Amino acid sequence: MQSSTINNILCFFILFIQINFIFAQNADKIKKYEAELNQPNIKDTAKIRILGELSWLNRNNNPEISLKYGREAVKLSDNYPNIDHSKVYTFVGVIYRNLGNYVVALEYFMKANVEAEKYGNKKQLGFAYQSIADILYKQGQLPKSEEYIRKGLEIFKQLDDKEGIAYTYHTWGKIAEAGKKYEQALHYHYQALEIRRPLNVLSAIASTKTQIGILYQRIKKYDRALDYLNEAKEVFVKDKNNSGIVNVYNTLSEIYFDKKEFKLSLEFAEKAVDISLKAKLTDLTQRSYQNLGNVYTEQKEYQKAFEAQKLSMIYRDSLFNKEKQWQSLAMQDQFQQDKQQSEIIKLKSKSAQQSLWFYFSFATIVLLILIMAAVFINLKQKRKFINKIENQSESIAEKNKDIEQANQKVDAMQERLDQSLKMLEKSQEKTDELKSLQKTVWQNANLMMMTVDKKGVLTSFNPTSEKILGYTAEELVNKKTTNLFLDTEQIKNSDNDDEWTYLTKSGEKVQVLVMIDSIKNNKEEIIGHLIIAQNISERKIYETKLKHTEDQFLQIQNIGEVGLWEINFPAQKTKWSEQMFVMYDMPKEGETPTIDEYLKKYTHKDDMMTFIQIIDATKTQKIAEAEVRNFDMNGKPFTLLVKATALLSEKSGKWIGAKGTAMRIHIGEKTIKSIV
Question: How far apart are CA 389 and CA 187, in angstroms?
Fold first, then answer.
């Protein structure tokens, strides 16, 4: 027994020395690289490498400083497009991922993927695949994530890169966990742990142990989970890895909460809140406050629970705002890069134009000199012949003028003839196309179409009319038979859309929407009418039923004093039915109160927590209900029976709020029901 205890103490002492040695190494490396960065006349390529290393070394303890170095490295690398920058892109992508900005992180990992493929950098290509898979599973795209993780694992196995293989198994375990395949996830994490132990990279081992502990929590094997989480916690604390510490503390708080050991659960939740606030880890802060609120609720400290839940909601909202800020920042960077690239292209173009203009000007001057010399010589020679041909030129010029005028007349006539032929061909083509289109519409339209002349004689009857009315065209065309299903006097007097009743051959009534248009000849004289009718019988039936249902539903709401409501947290919107405004004695055309306004102005202060519990319970229950005391617009108290169910996103299917009913039951003191 004593021997075992001594061995454990020795192991812990060795572990402590290793962790402090690694931490000291990192601190020394950071100082070394910062000193190199401040050296005068440092080359840009060396500066990019040093900035990347500083970004990577600061990623866990100083994420903002890490991002600053990473962004400087990326900005400088844009000036060297013919160098492989996949490593820098990967570093920056990891930082954005740790800060919770998955959209921008994925962009950088995709850039790293392109760069690594371009330069045949297989190791960075493997990390790019693994990192893309990590982001995709966080976004809920599990099949696509597994596709990338397989590619990454295949590359690391080809390279026999042990840490790369372990890292890939670690990520694959988280993907399986997201798909609730917990046994499979444990298998992958144990493979990662088996590979990492001989490599003795303590931070990586601690990360894997954390994931194993979380998985044992999922399957409710709490003792196993606590063993692994406590081992990981020791490493994170010594390594001052704030993100790892908070993650472990939150998980420990959740385990002790499930075990009903609320004192320990509260202790770890408070520690998680404290560290995450100091380290500015927004996503982990939100989770920490959520755990804190759950413990306070169980301990019936409702005021503290309400404050914790409210802070959790505030940090949840800040995550949305932070993502927008990061995206804006990324867009700003891209704009600056595009602007710089555009300026470089303009300068190069301007320089090329200046060079070209110089050579062109020089060549033009030389050419002008040569032309002037040639012209001067030719003028002397031509002058000798001018006197000889002047007399002949006058007579020839007159004859040429007559011939030219005759040719112009012939050309004009030919041009007019060609234009006339082209216009005739185009007119014929349009006529043929129009006839073909008219025939297609006439034969295939789902509308009843027919034409009548001025005397009311039916001149055409399309196939749809035959099908609906039961008559064939042969039975009706060229006969004055429209009065069987159409009043010809109504045709003459109607110039707009109308709803009529047609009679089929079998005597059945068909409700139709009719449009009548005049048919005119080339002289704009009316020679008949085109009648287009749409069958609306089924629509009329549905409209009647829908109106009846709506009247019944409105009557039920008014009689039972039942209102409908909806709360959407991401959109920060609320919706009320008309009856809700009636119950609160508010004008129906007024605006729906905000969430904060409803809680502070219209909800009894002792029942605020009850309402929040109802909303929160919809995450795990089908229906939650309770009685809640309220005040109307005039301060008059009344009690509502509030029932709620989850409001899910139409795109992702995730919980985004709650919706339900509110029924006015009595005025006065209330009896609070427990949440179902």
Answer: 108
